[in-house]
Write a structure and sequence with these properties.
The complex is a heterodimer of chains A (575) and B (383). Chain A is of the alpha+beta class. Chain A is built from 15 helices and 19 strands. Chain A has four domains: 2-45 and 437-574, no CATH class; 50-82 and 404-433, no CATH class; 83-96 and 262-402, no CATH class; 109-259, OB fold (Dihydrolipoamide Acetyltransferase, E2P) (Beta Barrel). In chain A, strands 3, 10, 11, 12, 13, 16 and 17 form a seven-stranded mixed β-sheet that branches. A six-stranded mixed β-sheet of chain A has the order 8-6-5-4-7-9. A four-stranded antiparallel β-sheet of chain A has the order 2-18-1-19, with helices on one face. In chain A, helix 2 (10-46) packs parallel to helix 13 (492-528), helix 2 (10-46) packs across helix 14 and helix 10 crosses helix 14 (536-567). With 383 residues, chain B is an alpha+beta fold. Chain B has two domains: 2-40 and 264-382, no CATH class; 51-255, no CATH class. Chain B contains twelve helices and ten strands. In chain B, helix 2 crosses helix 10 (314-342) and helix 10 (314-342) runs antiparallel to helix 11. Classes of the chains: A alpha+beta (575), B alpha+beta (383). Chains A and B meet through helix 2, helix 8, helix 10 and helix 13 of A and helix 2 and helix 8 of B.
Amino acid sequence: MELRIVVRRARKIVLITLFLLLILLSVFLFVIQSILDGIGLQYTIESYASVGTVYRSDAENAAFTPVEEDVLALLAESDAVQKIDIRQTLSAKVHGMENVPSYFAVPQTNHLVFFRGTVLNQMDVPADASVSYHARYATVRVDSILAGQSNWITKGKNVDVAIIWNGDPECSTTVGEEYCFLAHSSFSSALGMLDTLLYAPNYTEESVAGYEKIQSNYELYHDTVLPVPDSMSGEEADAYFLDILKSRGLDPYIQEIKELDDVFTIRQTSDMQMLIPVANEVMFFTAGRGIRPDDSGKKVCVISHELAAQQKLNVGDYIPISLGNGCYTDNGYESGFPAFGELSTVSYNTPQDYEIIGIYAFSSFDPREATLLFGYNDIFIPTSTETIPPSKNTYPYTLSFCVGGPEYNTFLDTTVADLSDMGYTVQMSASRWEDVESTYEAMASRRRLTLLCAILSCIAGIILYVLILLFLYRKEFALRELFGASFRHTRKAYTIPFAVSSVIASVLAVFAAYLWYLYRLVPQTELIAPGRTPANAQILAVLTALALIQMLMTYILILCLAGHSRRKSVLRLLK
Amino acid sequence: MFMKRICRKPLLPLLLLLVILLGVLFPTVLNQSIEKSYTELDELYAGIVIQCKLIPQTYIGADFALAPEIGDQISRMDEVSGYYCELNCPYYFRDPGPSSGNSMAHGTNDIYRFAEEHALELCFPVGESIDFSGDENICVVSEDLLDAASRSIGDTVTVAGSVSTAEKDTNAPDLNLTIVGSFTAEDTDIPWNAIIVPKACFFDTAELLSTAEGIRRWRVYTAFDFTIDQACNKEFDTVKEALQGIVGDKWLLYSTSRELYRAVQPLEKKLQMQEMLFRIVTVLFVFLPALITFLLCTKDKNEVLIRILYGEKPSRVFWSSWAPYTGLVILYGMLALLLSQAMGYLNGWNITGIVAVSILAAGIAIGLLCKTKLVTLYQSREG
């Protein structure tokens, strides 16, 4: 019955609905804009954050000394610290994919190469008074491989071997003769890093007395170049070599090296932007992107450029990763590979396909910088909700925390001072925040001003809508007053058109703004703040809430003004 | 008459004025905000230093060896503001000189950066600065070499290039170099008997590299990086494509552009999105005054009815009723214009749009009234 007011004068309801629709659309667009603006600004400001880690000041091997729980708690409690990322390390296998033959950080068992070869030429390095060893470089043609990564050493091709010995015995290799080599690839601070160079050490037991690690694997460090008897054929020589390995207890390594061909080191991270090398721009993405917080739980991974080049992989490809139930620790360095001379202990679960979303590379790479870089066989995956055995220790290189530019000075004054008292030093990435701070502050204050203008416009719009509504329906109200109707009845002259127009306008405005957001703004938000796009349901909820708030505000205003209208004379209303 | 009506019922005309002011001033504030943001964005772009480096695509331990033609092509680009290069070749001292055998001659275009890269401490005569970007025959040697060769700064030495580090190329032409400075170092990869010469010494066939084999083996940049002109930061993506086109597939182009990609470019996209939304809001604000004008004009129903009843031509009624509203809207528009000018931002299109659409709305409203049949018009009356 009351709806007749609306139907009788359809033109009026159309006009006020249109008016409210325009107001609501403007408000909704502004609100969405303001939300995205805030997210975008926050994202850009966060990119100026400094990423850092902590080291024990007094430890000899600080980079590989675990960070104490108290320190982690202090960082977690600090207001200046925005985020903390503690990376878990796992051993993993990627079935059917050979890893990159490279040396990084620490020697590994799969650096061993057992092969038979003929010395083609050799050169002695002149003895230097400053070093206690002798070295001979030999170019060896590989005749047979008993164990060794196939892409590290190839049968029929030449390989350079540095034969290193100390003590009195001379190295007795002869050009043209065949030998069995127990060599390994490694980094030598004295001889330098050459990927194509293998080392065959022959140390005396006395000389390694102080080296616990070498002592425990001494069989791999002495008599590593063994002459093949002249009378032996190829197969006989291999059998002879195998017998020697068995007699020295080294034969398990043959299978072990094969087993390690497809092993990789998994680094679980919540955000690759929190890696110090990424923040310092030493590590960069040649394709795709890094792991982001919104990747949590997804089956995605980021691999090295070297691995991608070797396996001809690209972004969008899938690799089957079997995660292990742990990792190996060598003097504080966590890796997916067992330490040199050790055998595997990790068991692997069933493979799951991971999509490659990014490929990383380094602008400069020093294999000794394990604390600030990552190896070519490191694969990054996002942190997941799956139960992963937590690492017993947090090392400086597995810890990253992020301090926003605006909080940097507070961090220095408070947290760094506390850390210093606890015996820790902080290493932070460089940031240009101080240079750009004023610009971003100006942008943020303008955003607040714009938001204020939008709120005022919204309020003004609602008042205008109410005034127009009251103006259009004042005669209906006056007639009801004239006939002595109750206030409950007379105010319906306003509330019914309000209800009809505001419901229609709100529904249309929410629908239009939501569609606009879905189809126009979401793709753009991904460019403005990747991975931070608000959920569709969130936006819908915000729009609905705004529409309801608007209705409530309008209703209250109408009730107040209806009361005011009642106090006016009927004649005045009818004019 | 019109003014009397306005004064008698001022609510709607006042609302119209408010809405027009709102429709003009709100976009003014927004546009001012966007313009300021764009200015600041330009400053942010100009503040970024993008350094580029080439990295061999072939993996693991590949030595850096860039053909100088590629390097020179890059360094000649307008978008490249500066570059740094290194190259080297074996050399030996022609008599008289230290009997130290062959060593390496290092070429560079920037001796200061070279010293920084190799941890050398340079010693130049007080107040002098040395420019290695030219083609002068000058060199910098170590203090130890100065002693061994019994020379001092300002003396000339005669050297010759060689193809191999092991053998001296006796046919190589003499190269006279003036020692302009010396260096000391504690932990460097530069041997004591090396010399540092300008890059140009490697590009004259009469000088260090005199044989085809020498040129093939040694005329390559062993280090090369460059900086993008800060004025071109905004077009970095295009510049990057052009650079990749020059260096080809064998090289990865690395750039220190994290700030550009993580902060400034998203900010620019954010502003573009803001601009688009503000345009929409501006358009929406154009229609608000139009609606009120329409409403205001429909209130002239009685006036129109009476005048037509008295036999006035509908066209005359139309023009005479429309003109005052046109004047009113123009007046309001002028007020908004003055106000926005006072605020320091004038958006002519916005004001014109608001005024034009409102006048059009008034025309439609009055036109519809004039076209309506008298009976219908009478029946539609409320008061």
